[in-house]
Model the fold of this input.
Amino acid sequence: MTLLSTTSAEDLSLDNSELVRMSTQLPDLPEKTYLAFPNKWFIGSQSGCSCSFRHLYVSSVELGFGEPEDWFPEEASDIEATHQVFTLIKSLVAKGEKVDVVDAWADGKSEVVPLSGDIEVNLKIVSENSFRFYENHRFTFANRI
Done:
């Protein structure tokens, strides 16, 4: 599941599409405690959960951000859905808002599992095409030169 928090009081669901559904109804995911900002959102994909976004599993995080590759086929709709989320985040940060995202596996556990890492995403460097979520990580976003 992918959760977002922000300082923005904006209704993020106004930009919902067939590929991305923002909802204030958070799933029962203990890792939501890692979200730092007051306005919290569940980022759902076309599959209903957050599965239809670009992701790296914990064991693959060393691959980092990267554009889709021919040798690893990805669904065009998953790529587009991830672009839409990235654009939304970039828009919030450009307005001076703070944003973080936690990506965690919803496996029915009731206790918080320590995250595998905290990553600052520099929106001046990481492109829409290369962005992907990392399982069991928290992302913060900034525009740094």
In short: The longest strand covers residues 39-45. The chain has a mean pLDDT of 91.
